[in-house]
Here is the input.
Amino acid sequence: MTETLTVDVCVIGAGSGGLSVAAGAAQLGLDVVLFEKGEMGGDCLNYGCVPSKALIAAGDKAHQARTAGLGIGAVEPIVDFAAVMAHVHRTIATIAPVDSQDRFEGLGVRVIRAHARFEDERTVVGGDVRVEARKVVIATGSRAAVPPIPGLENLPYLTNETLFELTEQPRRLIVLGGGPIGVELGQAFQRLGSEVVIVEAGEILGREDPEAVAVVRDQLVADGVDLRDRTRAMRAETSPKRTGVVLIVEGPEGESRIAGSHLLVAVGRSPSTGGLDLDKAGIVHDAKGIRTDKALRTSNRRVHAVGDVAGRGQFTHLAGAHASLFVRRAIFGAPVNADALAVPRVTYCDPELATIGHTEAEARQAHGEDVRVETFHFSENDRAMAEGDTRGLGKLVTTKKGKVLGVTLVGRHAGDHIHVWALSMSAKLKLSAMTGMIAPYPTRGEIGKRLAGMWYTPALFSDRTRKIVSILKHLA
Ligand SMILES: Cc1cc2nc3c(=O)[nH]c(=O)nc-3n(C[C@H](O)[C@H](O)[C@H](O)COP(=O)(O)OP(=O)(O)OC[C@H]3O[C@@H](n4cnc5c(N)ncnc54)[C@H](O)[C@@H]3O)c2cc1C
Ligand SMILES: NC(=O)c1ccc[n+]([C@@H]2O[C@H](COP(=O)([O-])OP(=O)(O)OC[C@H]3O[C@@H](n4cnc5c(N)ncnc54)[C@H](O)[C@@H]3O)[C@@H](O)[C@H]2O)c1
Here is the structure.
């Protein structure tokens, strides 16, 4: 028998976005229903950020052993793949209680483990429950896009949803797609001892600053990854002995065959809108996701969309930011603007590549001549020298008046050093705030202050300043 609930907020999807909405709304005293058809925690916890970072950490350990240096002898590490995967799953299990049904029920949320869909403009149904809500939030995320490559459908290819279930280490892993997923996981598997080939239709990490990508590329090549840029997959076949896969590709040198024991498809994501019956609720959507305005409202004014499904970027921290915009707008009525968020992104390869705002190329396209770029290399950072790892650089992109348009950092722990720029951009701080900050020495984080300092250097040590100093000297 169907139970009917009337609530304040109905959330569909218990991933990064949906859980943040549900927790926020419930803790503010609202009645909340949360539908989840799969695992609590969604992609990030179960098939995305968490397992991938755990795997990358194991790959990093293997790499450190193999390369050591600074007077420490390198050794070829013994990789116990089953133990590595046990670490991956232990990490998921350790974090899982934060996203669990128990925790959310403890917060007062009614959690329904079922597929949800719209029955009409104001009703959501799932399992044995019909929900009428003042506000509905769609937070159904995204899934790996599978390209229409002839033969692929007949192969046991991997995606992020199946990769972390592997019990045997791939001997030779073909990674289709050189975006963040392909590069992060490709490098991790190579370092764990698999042979990895990355097949990329354009350039790897094509959205990022080419100078920064070159640093990552050099490391991937040094690790032994076989990088095939500007290479398109034309067909896929089972290998002659049926023990693996063969990808027939067209690259700069013409057509060739790449054989592998496994194939990982990582060519982007498709919004999870299937089976929601969005049309019954009058919700406009397309291949990029559900269309939303700057308050994340869909074409049905009762319904909002947050996270990957909103087609505005695919990051856990962005889904979280969307959730907080929803709470501010829909619950407190405050004005919000999802188009104006300063969203950092980090690819957790080694060295890490972190960006916020415009790259240099994007800034030049948007601002023409009104662009200044300062570049500082880790080869001039004392901590990097002490650690014997001077790979990488930072780039600060501003207008000629000093408005920060974007920052790119590539280097060890770059993801931790982009935070200060995320604060600077979200709080719209002046560059002088960065030079006025005392940065502890010696840290890689000093790169932020150095970049800002470089921006002022020409004006500070100019003839005009010298003249002022000379006048002040005589007045003193
Ligand atoms: C390999 C990989 C690595 C990643 N690494 C990072 C990283 O390091 N940092 C980062 O910021 N981002 C990373 N991401 C991206 C990040 O995982 C996503 O941006 C994030 O999970 C999006 O959250 P979400 O809430 O929008 O969707 P999801 O986490 O996908 O959650 C959506 C939930 O909705 C459920 N659902 C769908 N349809 C229905 C329905 N009809 N009824 C009920 N439930 C439904 C799904 O089962 C799912 O649990 C990574 C992604 C991948 C694939
Ligand atoms: N560290 C992180 O924050 C992190 C990590 C992983 C994923 N993510 C999120 O997930 C999203 C999806 O990642 P992704 O790497 O799957 O997608 P992506 O869209 O970022 O990159 C996919 C790559 O595959 C290439 N490609 C597309 N079709 C191809 C084909 N047929 N043959 C060869 N190459 C092809 C594209 O040129 C592109 O470079 C990311 O954009 C990011 O938002 C974030």
Q: What stands out?
A: The longest helix spans residues 49-67. The chain has three domains: 3-143+270-339, 152-268, 351-460. The pocket of nicotinamide-adenine-dinucleotide (ligand 2) is lined by residues 147, 176-182, 184, 199-202, 206, 232-233, 266-269, 314-315, 345-348 (CB under 6 Å). The chain has 15 helices and 23 strands.
